[in-house]
Design a protein that fits this description.
- The structure is a homodimer.
- By secondary structure, the first copy, chain A, is an alpha/beta fold.
- Chain A folds into three domains: 51 residues, 434 Repressor (Amino-terminal Domain); 134 residues, Rossmann fold (3-Layer(aba) Sandwich); 125 residues, 3-Layer(aba) Sandwich (Rossmann fold), CATH 3.40.50.2300.
- Chain A is built from twelve helices and eleven strands.
- In chain A, strand 8, helix 10 and strand 9 form a beta-alpha-beta unit.
- The radius of gyration of chain A is 25 Å and the shape is elongated.
- Chains A and B meet through helix 2, helix 4, strand 1, helix 5 and strand 2 of A and helix 2, helix 4, strand 1, helix 5 and strand 2 of B.
- Strand 2 of chain A pairs antiparallel with strand 2 of chain B, so a sheet runs across the interface.
- Chains A, B: InterPro entries: HTH_LacI, LacI/GalR-like_sensor, Lambda_DNA-bd_dom_sf, Peripla_BP_I.
- Chains A, B: It holds the Pfam family LacI.
- Chains A, B: This is Transcriptional regulator, LacI family.
Chain lengths: 334, 334
Amino acid sequence: MVTLKDVAKRAGVSIATVSRVMSNSDAVADKSRQRVLEAIEELGYYSNELARGLRQEKINAVAVILPDISNPFFADMLRGIDDVLSTCNYFILFNNTDNNIKVEKKCLENMRSMALSGALVYCCHKSLDGLADSLPANSDTVFLSEGGGLNADNIHFLSFSRKETAYAAARHLYDLKRQKLLLLLSSFQQNDSDFIDGIKKAAEETGGSYCTAYSSVNEKDASRVFSCAYSDEHPDGVITESDIQAMGVLSWLHTNEINVPGDISIVGLGNSSLAQCTQPRLTSAAPSGYQIGMAGANYLLNFIQKDSGNFLRDTKTLEQMLLPNIIVRGSSKW
Amino acid sequence: MVTLKDVAKRAGVSIATVSRVMSNSDAVADKSRQRVLEAIEELGYYSNELARGLRQEKINAVAVILPDISNPFFADMLRGIDDVLSTCNYFILFNNTDNNIKVEKKCLENMRSMALSGALVYCCHKSLDGLADSLPANSDTVFLSEGGGLNADNIHFLSFSRKETAYAAARHLYDLKRQKLLLLLSSFQQNDSDFIDGIKKAAEETGGSYCTAYSSVNEKDASRVFSCAYSDEHPDGVITESDIQAMGVLSWLHTNEINVPGDISIVGLGNSSLAQCTQPRLTSAAPSGYQIGMAGANYLLNFIQKDSGNFLRDTKTLEQMLLPNIIVRGSSKW
């Protein structure tokens, strides 16, 4: 591998001079500077990112910190983020966290040590207090999820309203004359009070009722939890916190020959590509992971590029992209 | 942001001295070295990665270059890769390529400029010739897919055998007395001759027949293409190149009240988490994306860490992880 020393030798100058050239110092004679630059070129010294680092500029990379890429909601989100960032020549440093705050802290601290341009973070804690010390002071972080406890000029939030989305899903079912909803929440999310508040509001407006159950975000566990809740509660409508859980519910209902939507209606959340693959097709509430990823990446770019005069998308447009919208398919309406 | 100049000022030395300290040069008095290190500490200079860069070491990051993260096969793969790499403290630089060789080239060239530790690449070209000039000379690249045309000490291949996997899937169906298979291939893959060879071998052994059709890797297009192929060919068995396509096929058959597996058996490929969510559950051929990701990341680490004496997994074990295995569920066997 080519070293600073090799460059210095080829250019016939000291290592210190090479280093001065790379840090854009003025204290180098033009002739020496020219020789150093030629040597770098000839030897194929990895100049781009290293030189950038030496000048203490940020590298064109954004940390993307998501709970679990094997959940299609987050896979769609990463795709949305990449579709925006790659057109602007930003790399993605990707991390799974399993919603573990220790892992989230570590990812953010690593980002700080690498002087990245920014970060997009989705985490599901009620309070983000624990992350305050780990956030980079010199770059912008956009949270794609709600969560209190952080307040600084370079911390931003762009998230869909879980309360409004849950409200829209519940109103859809109550308006179809469903009376007793089961909320299948994710044991993984820790900020579910907003979600329940949305359902509560719809229940109060319509005189409907609801109960809650918790499962992991996988088909099998959702199926198991739903089977217990179903025999206890006999709901005629279900709202699941993710489309994967809805698939588990559909699967159990199919096995037990309970008609969907004749006997029971189902609404998922996140309108993932899965929703079009079920039988019947799954009604699901947007925004999708893809929309959230696209909007979040545009929002972050507004901050990263604020000095460049590139104004990508105004906040209002981005927020509108994330308004709740029920995509009605066969699983809810007959 | 703290600069080299700030560090030099605080330490009371020249910038050149700071640079010498960071490049681990011996030509610095111990006392000055000490002062520089203290100044770096006090000022919170982003020392980790930059210092590493200055010493021309590679950064602890691996480029992961995959076609499309919104395909669960690749989302599972990224999860498998991250589960291995994060325990060894390697970051992931992630890129979607949509199997576009220009994008793949660009990703690899970026990696070269950043002096990453290695790369994991999945691409679907018959020949990888076009990538030869873009591959980093100083780090290892592991291809998780087959493809000829590359030959160098730092280029490695660890992939499942598409031919053997297709053979196993076809034998499974022919052994169930299915006679006429439809192969639903992906218009996205360009290296499908191995795949067809596997089916051909099984057909010749058993006296069965087969025909082929091509669709995009999405449920709707698979459904559309299958509906045409079905009326022309009346297959009694289907093998799809991805589980997503199988979901499209299942959906069309369900709508048209054709019994699965009574009238027709279906086998997917890649045993994604989706396979457990369909009705009936989908028979699918392993290895899964997750297994390929795990094996590939371990394989790459063997090369990256070869000098450290850490021997993670022998190649034979890794190859065995990727042997074909039909996970039989309700969609094929009655």
